[in-house]
Amino acid sequence: MCGITAIFDYRGCGVRREELEAITARMIPRGPDAGGTWVSADGRVGLGSRRLAIIDPTPEGTQPMWDVAGELAIVFNGEIYNHRELRASLERGGARFHSKTDTEVLLELYRRDGTRMVELLRGMFAFALWDTRTSRLFIARDPYGIKPLYYADDGTTIRLASEVKALLAGGAVSDAIDPAAAAGFFLTGSVPEPFTIRRDVRAVEAGTYFLVDEHGRGEARRHYSIAAVFHDADDRTLVDPSVLIRERLEESVVHHLVSDVPVGLFLSAGIDSSVLAQIAVRQGPLHTFTLSFPELSEAPLAERFARELGTTHTTRLVTREELFADLPAIFERMDQPSIDGVNTWFISKAVHEAGLKVALSGVGGDELFGGYPSFRNVPRMVSLASIPLAARIAPLLSRHPKARLASLGRTWSGAYLLQRGLFLPDELPAILGADAAREGIDRLALLAAIEAELQPDPGTPFGRVATLEATRYMRNQLLRDADWASMAHSVEVRTPLVDAYLLRELAPAVLQGGDKSALASTLPDYLRHRAKTGFFVPMREWLDLPPDGTSTRMRSWARHVWESFA
Prior knowledge:
Number of strands: 18
CATH architecture of the largest domain: 3-Layer(aba) Sandwich
Strand content: 15-25%
Number of helices: 25
Helix content: 40-55%
C-alpha cells in the first residue's frame, strides 16, 4: 500500500523535481516505510512513491520500481490478491523477476498483455506505469474504486497523486473550490466522482484506464461495470444460493488475507464483520478490534464473540475529549469533505497502536446483500409516485415534501436521491450563494449522473439499487473515507465483500434472494438476531450540534466540515 505520484510534461517543458518531492512528501503517512522519486533523463516524466511495506517488505519492493529489462517503471497503490497465480503464469512464459512483490507482477503482466492486463487483476489498485519503449503513461484504477487516484491536466502537463491535497502541495495546482463538488457534497454528504472539491482536479474513474502520450490524455476506457455484471448475471436456477454465497465468501476472505505481515480485523458485532472473523480465524491467528464509547458500546458482544473465536482482541475506548483533541488532525487528513469517516479514524488508530499495518473490514455487505432500507424504499417510491394519490401518501415514505416526492420519485435516480439526499437543490443558494449554487447544480447534473450508473440496465429493482449503492454511496463515501482515515494512521483496510470477482460469482445468487441469512446462520443467536450495527461515533451528542431545519444534526455536521475546506 502506498501513496503515489506521477507527472508527465507531454509538451516538453520539464518536470520540477521540487514539485514531485513535495507531492510525495505530503503522503508520508500513507507510506512511512520507504519512499523515492525518479525523473527521466529528458526531464519530461517523474514518478514518486511512499511505501507501506506489506508484500515482500524487503528493499526490493521499493518504488518507483523498474522491470528487469529496465524498460518499464511503475508506482502502484494497492494489493493484487491473485499475484502469486499471475506470477506463476508469467514465469511459465519466461518472465524474470527481481522481487516477490505484486508490484513487479504488474510490470511483467503489462509487458505480456498490454492494457488488457487490468482484466486479470483481483484486488484494489491505482497505478501509473511508464513505458520507455513508447514514451507513454498508462493509468488505471480498480473496478470498485477502492483505492483513489486523482489528476490535474492543464493542457501541457498531467499530474497524478493518491490525494487531492498532495497535488495542491506541489504548488502548481489551484486550490479553487469547484461549485459542482460543493453542490454534490451538500446534496449527498460526499463529493461525487469524477468531481473533487478542487476545480482543477478530477478523479480517475473507478473501473477505467487511460493513456497519456505526447499528444496528451487519451479517452478513458472502461474495464469493469457493476451495472453490466447484474445485467449479464446468469439466470440459471440455483438449488441453494446460500451454499454458493458461503463458499465464494470464504474464497474471497482467503485471498484478502494474502500478506507478509499480520492482518487484523474490525469487529463491530454486526453480521458482516462477525462472519469475516469467523472465516479468517480458521486461516491463522487473528487480532480483532472494536470501538467503545462511554455513552454507547457494542464492545461486550464483540468481546464475547472474540473470546469464543479465540482471537487476540482489543477494545478501544474513545471519549469526547479525544474526539475534540483529534478534530484538527482529522480535518487536516480528510482529503475531501465528508460527513463520515471519523469511525474509521479511531478504529484505524487502534490498529496502528497495536503495531499492525493491515485490517479487514466488513464494508460492502449491505450493498451486496440488500441490507439497507433503500432496497425496499426506492422501488416503492418509484412504484407509488406514479399513481394519482402519491402526494397523499408521500409522508409515509419520505421526510421530503409531497411535491418533491411526486416529481423526483418517478425515476430511479430521483427516488435514490430522495433516499440518500442530505440537502435538496433549492436549499443550496442559502448555503453556497445563488450564483455558485446555480453553477454547481447545473454542472453536477446529479440526476443524470445517477441515471448513467444504471447503464446497461441491471434488469431488476434489486440490481438497480445494488448498483447505485455500490457506485454512489459506497464509492464516494464509505470507500473514500476508509482510505483517507486509515492511511492517516498508516493502516491498509481490505474489504473482502467489495471484490469484483466475488460480485460476478454472487450476482445470480443475490438476485434470486440470497441474503445475509446465508451468512448469519453460522453465528451464535446473540449476534444473529440483533439489529443492524456498526462503528458509530456519537458525533451529534458530543459536538452538541443543533438540528438543521426539519432534518437531523448531520446537516449541521456537514456545515461544520465544510468550514474546514471553504
